[in-house]
Amino acid sequence: MRTILLGTAIVAMSQISCGTGKTEVATMKEHFKDDFLVGAAIPAGVVNGIDEKADSIVSLHYNSIVAENCMKNEELQPEEGVFFWDDADRFVKYGEDRGMKIIGHTLVWHSQLAQWFPFDSVGRYVSADVLKERMRSYIHTVVGRYKGRVMGWDVVNEAIEDDGSYRKTPFYDILGEEFIPLAFEYAHEADPDAELYINDFSMFLPGKRDAYVKLVGNLKERGIRIDGIGMQSHIGMDYPDLGEYEKSIEAFGSTGCHVMITELDMSALPTVHFGADISDNVDFRKDMDPYTDGLPQEVSDRWNSRMDSVIALYKKHSDVISRVTWWGTHDSMSWKNDFPMHGRTDYPLPFDRNYKLKPFMVKELASDK
Fold first, then answer.
1. What pLDDT, in 10s, does the model give residues 69-109?
2. Which member of 68, 185, 263, 364 is catalytic?
3. CB-facing half-sphere around the CA of 132: CA atoms within 13 A
4. Catalytic annotation present for 263
5. Are strands 3-6 and 9-12 parallel, antiparallel or unpaired?
6. Which is the catalytic residue, given 68, 158, 195, 364?
7. String of b and e for 239-267 (b: at least 16 CB within 10 Å)?
8. pLDDT tens by residue, 208-227
9. 79 phi, psi to nearest 5 deg
10. Quick check: is 133 catalytic?
């Protein structure tokens, strides 16, 4: 391994050849093999061969993948009785061809829900019985199609508000709290061997933490299978407080569920707000997009230092953390460039816009040498 000195920092050289797949340091999946699975959310463009460099990164470094969009309801069933399988089928085969653990995302979610799903022909909410049947039919169809091929499913996504109350969605409005156990029961019926997860953002907040610990406990008391709690972990330079974040890891681990870091990225930009509700959007402000030509060295150093601390926290709790999944592969394709303010230039992922591994991970991987 060669190193170069940058000021007082030692950065290991890790230039990945996208043509050969060779690297001078360990890959992430090798490095963390005794800690947790390492994954990435990938778009259809990677699966379909449009972004070959991103494909090289995914194939080299990750042993788990989740679909960024192609397994969401509005993509799979845009109309009642009409399913579109092409992208999801390619995604699953992509993971199988590379020997990866495949995560299905997501079965019940109010966002990216097909418009027809909770409504009748005149635009009114359907009855509880109709919605139950639509949920059961949809979950059985999707999970059943990939039975034995998908390791686990994000069954319910973003069901709880930051204060611990239930989010007011069509599922909650029609079925109340019972929509969550029903979704898990339907998924388990469709594939009894698949792991089943619940997933949400801002999981470091005490109100949300307590609500999920209670919810998971209630599911287990009823004998309903739940295997994991997903902490989305869309974080920033000034949030969350890592002490509160660690409390949530410990609390969720105490339920007997796996803890999964499911949608990891860290914005380098000034914080607009720390939520991840995709319906939240704010008007563009130039002062909130200060790094269009690249991160200043001082900001990059702080970003990498904070990410060092985050990775160290995951390793500390690898006894309960079963998977760490980045939400994307390289900076230019991250959703954070457009959320919650369209058109910003952000730097939230382990690979930069030139597909090069960032210093925090180069340093981490170099520790194997």
1. 999 999 999 999 999 999 999 999 999 999 999 999 999 99
2. 263
3. 10
4. yes
5. antiparallel
6. 158
7. bbeeeebeebbebbbebebbbbbbbbbbb
8. 999 999 999 999 999 999 99
9. -135, 155
10. no
